[in-house]
Structure formats: C-alpha cells, structure tokens
Design goal:
It is a single chain. The chain has 392 residues and is mostly beta strands. The protein has 2 domains: 1-190, 3 Solenoid (Pectate Lyase C-like); 215-392, Pectate Lyase C-like (3 Solenoid), CATH 2.160.20. Helices cover 9% and strands 47% of the residues. It has helices spanning 2-17, 39-50, 127-134, and strands at residues 22-24, 33-37, 57-60, 67-69, 73-76, 84-87, 90-92, 104-109, 115-117, 121-123, 143-148, 154-156, 159-161, 168-171, 177-179, 182-184, 195-198, 201-211, 217-219, 223-233, 239-244, 250-264, 270-274, 279-295, 300-303, 320-333, 337-342, 349-361, 369-373, 375-384, 390-391. It has a 20-stranded parallel beta sheet that branches. An 11-stranded parallel beta sheet has the order 5-8-11-14-17-19-21-23-25-27-29. The chain is elongated. Bound molecules: 2-acetamido-2-deoxy-beta-D-glucopyranose (NAG) (3 copies).
Length: 392
C-alpha cells in the first residue's frame, strides 16, 4: 500500500509538473553540498514561488545526492496559489546547539492547501542536543518541522530522523492529511515525539512508520475529528492522547479514531493522559483493530494522574473522560498490568466499552491483570485479562 502511494504521488508530480512552473532552489544559488548554508537561496526561491499564481512547484532537487544545510527557516504565506513543495534532496540541520528557546527548525506558516512531499531525508542532527539535555546544559530542544495555519495541508512520504525534540508538529491546521511518513530516532532520545497534532480538526494521519524516543503520535488539546490508521509504531511511547489539563487549564478533545495499526516494543500502547486539577473533556474516542507486541508498561492505559516528574500534589478536578471504545485489540504485554484504567476520583471515566480484547503475557511465568479505579462501562465478547470494573 505504501509503495502504491509513493508511485501515485510521483505520477502526480510527473503529470502536473508539465503545466506548473518550477522554482528549483539550485537556480536561486543553493549549493547542496551539505556544508554551505543554503537558507538564503531557499528563501529567495520561496519568495518567487509564493508570488506565482500558477500553482507552482518549489523543488529541492536530489539530483547527484544533494544535501542542503539550512538554519532556522520560515516559509510564510499566504501565497498567490496552491503550492507543491517537493523535497527530493536531503536537508540537514546545523550540527550545533543553535537555540535555547522553544523553537522549530523548519516552519510552514499560513499556507493553506500546501502539499509537502518527497523522499529526501530530513536530518535534525539531534544527538548533540540529547547529550546537552542529559547533562542539563540545555533546557529546550527544537522541533524539526511545524505547520501552523495550513488548512488543507498535505504531507506525503517525507523521511524525518534524529530530531532534537519533536519531529513534526501540526498546529491550527484543519483538514490536514499526513501519509506515507517515515520517522526515526533512537529509543532513548528524550521527548522526540514523532507527530504532534493540536488545535486542529478533521485531520488524518495514515500509512506511516514511526520509531522514536517518545510518543509515536500525540494528539493534543483542541483536536477534533482526527483519524489515525495504518501506523507502525515502535519503539516509542505508543499512540497517545494528551497530555491534557496541565496547570489547571481546560482542554477538550473529541472524535478521535485510531485503527488498523501495529504497536511494538513501546513503553505504553494506547494511552490517554491527563493532569490532576485540569478541566474540560476527552470524549468519543475509539480504538479498533490494533496489534501489539512487547508493550512494557500497559497496553491500554488511561492515566488521569499523569505526572512525568513524579512530584505532583493531589488536586481535585480533572478532564472528564467518556465514550471510549476498545474493539479488536490483541497482542503481548511485558508487564503484568496490561489494562490500566486509572481514572479521577473527582471525575470518574464514563462509558468505557471493550469488546474482543485479548492480551497474552510476554513471558509465560506472569499472569496478566487489569487495574481499575473510578472507571465505569461495559465489556462484551472476549476480554482478557478480565476487567471487572466494566459490566459484562
Ligand atoms: C474519521 O472517521 C469517521 C468514522 O469513519 C468519519 O465519520 C469521519 O468523517 C472521519 N474524519 C476524517 C477527518 O477523515
Ligand atoms: C493483527 O494480527 C492478526 C493476526 O495475526 C492479523 O490477522 C491482522 O491483520 C493484524 N492486524 C493489524 C492491524 O496488523
Ligand atoms: C494523593 O492521593 C493518593 C491516593 O489517595 C495518596 O496515596 C497519596 O499519598 C496522595 N499524595 C499526596 C502528595 O498527598
């Protein structure tokens, strides 16, 4: 399927390229030698492409194995027409600590209907940052790529690796469709989420392979109607919703569907995480047809006591979780607690449903169990381990 998508997208390029003007970064003075900073050439090519009303192509050619060194760069719209941004060559970040702010290396801002595609490798040069963070010499590590204000965004077939922080962020962009992505960072790289989507509605993420040091996919606050399917995730922290309600804020998430995926060698499998003291709701969430292998700390997790620094005081109030369904899930758990529904005492989880859920222990000598507090709902069909808080 992935292969078919790749072929299709190249056919599209070949057909449309005949009619559309091309803005090749080489024409604007890029060197593509991996050493010269090509940021200025990219910005000049962008300025011209963005002003063209004929649906142009912005082309980062890969011919001859070109790799382009870029500093922080912002591609900003609105543009005169709908652009295709083709990345066939490699992009590489400076191999030094270049910011101490919360920052992003490559930003696409206010460019509705842009399509970013190509199979060039985008290398965030993260290792120097991970080292710096581990020694407490850095506080923030930048993201590789962020889209903000890009409604009807398409992102196809990009390869991202070794981000200092998160890899790809979609923010305030409705009707975004991401597919065919390949994202990799080492399992022990800190906070290197694969994809974060927030403040966006009607989005899809599909046919992608993600292995990172944090969430493969995180669905953040103010996300509505987001479908995630055909994802291969591992290593990492699985596919997560949240965290929500940090510092007492109201966060809402609704209409999230995660299906037809494989999650392996991850910390958790599918998790919803909220902070004590928060407000708002997370509802109408479904998980369907997902396979798991060797999940270490809970395959199904609702954690309303989320506290990564382990020093959170107890607070009343929480994000209300309801209408969460788990259907057709199977696989292996390393920990004995395979299902963990740790819901808030002030805001119990309502309408949790499970059907055809079956987990087996990774090692024969452990017995799987479920942990439940403040969770209500029902189970039907086969559910193992037994989850007595759900009425059968
Ligand atoms: C997500 O899937 C649901 C159920 O199939 C569908 O109703 C909805 O339109 C889909 N949303 C998007 C953004 O594709
Ligand atoms: C999950 O595993 C089952 C049995 O091996 C297989 O039939 C099914 O296609 C798999 N589903 C996914 C989404 O990988
Ligand atoms: C929070 O509440 C839990 C359970 O009621 C209790 O075990 C824990 O000691 C409390 N923690 C603090 C910091 O008060």
């Amino acid at each position: 399927m992935e292969f078919v998508l790749i072929i299709l997208s190249y056919l599209t390029v070949a057909i449309i390229a005949g009619a559309s003007p091309i803005y090749n970064v080489m024409t604007y003075g890029a060197r593509g030698d991996g050493k010269t900073d090509d940021t200025k050439a990219f910005l000049n090519a962008w300025k011209a492409a963005c002003a063209d009303p004929r649906n142009p192509y912005f082309v980062v050619t890969g011919k001859g194995g070109k790799i382009y060194l870029l500093s922080k760069i912002i591609f900003e719209g609105p543009c005169r027409s709908s652009l295709k941004f083709l990345i066939s060559g490699g992009l590489v970040a400076p191999n030094r600590v270049w910011t101490n702010q919360i920052d992003t290396w490559i930003v696409f801002k206010n460019i509705p209907t842009i399509t970013v595609l190509g199979n060039g490798l985008i290398d965030g040069k993260g290792s120097i940052w991970w080292d710096c963070l581990s020694k407490n010499q850095c506080r923030n590590a930048p993201y590789i790529m962020e889209f903000m204000g890009c409604d009807y965004l398409r992102v196809k077939n990009l390869n991202l690796k070794d981000s200092p922080g998160k890899h790809l962020v979609v923010y305030k962009s409705d009707y975004a469709a991401l597919s065919g992505l390949k994202i990799t960072s080492p399992e022990d790289s800190p906070n290197t989420d694969g994809i974060l989507i927030s403040d966006s509605q009607h989005g899809t993420i599909s046919y992608s392979t993600i292995g990172v040091g944090d969430d493969c996919i995180a669905i953040g606050p103010r996300s509505y109607d987001i479908n995630v399917s055909h994802i291969t995730c591992g290593p990492g922290h699985g596919i997560s919703i949240g965290s929500l309600g940090k510092n007492g804020v109201e966060d809402n998430v609704e209409g999230i569907h995660i299906s037809n995926s494989h999650i392996f060698n991850t910390l958790t499998g599918i998790r919803i995480k909220t902070w004590q003291g928060g407000a708002g709701h997370a509802k109408s969430i479904s998980y369907e047809n997902i396979n798991f292998t060797s999940v270490k700390a809970g395959v199904i997790v609702i954690d309303q006591y989320y506290c990564p620094e382990l020093n959170c005081p107890n607070k009343t109030g929480n994000v209300a979780i309801s209408e969460v369904s788990y259907l057709g899930l199977q696989g292996s758990s390393v920990s004995d607690v395979a299902i963990k529904l740790a819901c808030s005492s002030s805001m119990p989880c309502r309408d949790i449903t499970m059907s055809e859920v079956s987990f087996t222990p990774q090692q024969a000598n452990i017995r799987l169990q479920s942990y439940c507090i403040n969770a209500q709902g029902s189970a039907s069909g086969h559910v193992t381990p037994q989850t007595p808080c759900l009425k059968h």
